[in-house]
Design goal:
about 280 residues; single chain; about 70% helix
Length: about 280
């Protein structure tokens, strides 16, 4: 009987890039399909982020702060200073500043899932899936929600809805509609269609680029980790195999250290763009 071979490099990557879903899509676009893994980790890490912030606030003291309290206070002050410089309405900042803080912490935690070994959680899921009587080869699990376009676009659409809310709240429904048809080219009736189209394009471009930027960076980082993992999986007792194993350790360590900067920067960029877009909603043309 022929020996069972492991997956090829392509099969390995495809398997790790396949989501755990409630069922297969019936067409190109199927809104009844949900990426259950992305939803699970997003909810769990969102709850963890809120608990960490609540814990810091509950244990805060007026004396010399501990390391955890000091780190949270520095983060809160950083977000608050950025919010003050962009959103000049003090009443709006009561909601916008905490929103920006939660966004930063949440996205940082979602991005940080990329630092775990790529096979850790999928292997655990394979054991659970296999113990339940299913084929472990079909046990799909992706653990980086921000490498899922549906998650990042959902976040950016949520920011868009907040921007629309503040456009209406600050300018009034009539004032916002007037702005949609009179900016940026002028209030002449012949320019109304062009103005409206430009406003729609601007909203769409902001939303798409907001979500795609985060998704693209995290998806690329996930792919690099998978390629580095393949180096370690190809090792053998030979000069080439030992070289691959050493390269796997060096490349994995270097990329993980560099990736800490990426996951932090991407969380900060998403938060800053959120503040900028909400701040623009307060400005009248």
């Amino acid at each position: 009987m022929a020996a069972e071979h492991g997956p090829t490099a392509g099969e390995y990557i495809v398997h790790h890039l396949t989501h755990l879903q409630n069922h297969k899509a019936s067409g190109v676009v199927d809104f009844t399909v949900f990426n259950l893994d992305s939803m699970f980790y997003s909810i769990v890490l969102g709850a963890l982020g809120c608990w960490l912030l609540w814990s810091a606030a509950r244990k805060a003291t007026s004396g010399v702060p501990g390391r955890f309290q000091a780190a949270v206070e520095m983060m809160v002050e950083m977000v608050d200073s950025q919010a003050k410089g962009i959103v000049h309405n003090a009443h709006s900042r009561k909601l916008v500043a905490p929103l920006a803080l939660v966004i930063f912490v949440w996205i940082f935690l979602l991005n940080a899932m990329d630092l775990f070994p790529v096979d850790l959680f999928p292997k655990i899921w394979e054991m659970i899936y296999g113990a339940a009587g299913h084929d472990p080869h079909h046990a799909y699990m992706r653990v980086v929600p921000t490498a899922d376009l549906s998650v990042t676009m959902g976040m950016s659409v949520s920011v868009l809805l907040v921007c629309i809310y503040y456009n209406i709240k600050i300018k009034g429904m009539g004032g916002w509609i007037h702005e949609l048809f009179t900016a940026p080219f002028g209030s002449h009736p012949l320019l109304w269609p062009a103005n409206f189209m430009m406003q729609v394009i601007e909203f769409i471009a902001k939303t798409v680029s907001h979500g795609m930027r985060l998704f693209g960076n995290m998806y690329a980082g996930e792919l690099i980790f998978l390629l580095i993992a393949l180096m370690g999986g190809a090792w053998s007792v030979s000069a080439t195999g030992i070289g691959l194993a050493i390269g796997h350790i060096i490349a994995g360590t270097a990329w993980a250290i560099f990736h800490i900067l990426i996951i932090t920067l991407q969380a900060f960029v998403f938060m800053m763009l959120t503040l900028v877009y909400i701040g623009q909603a307060h400005d009248a043309h």
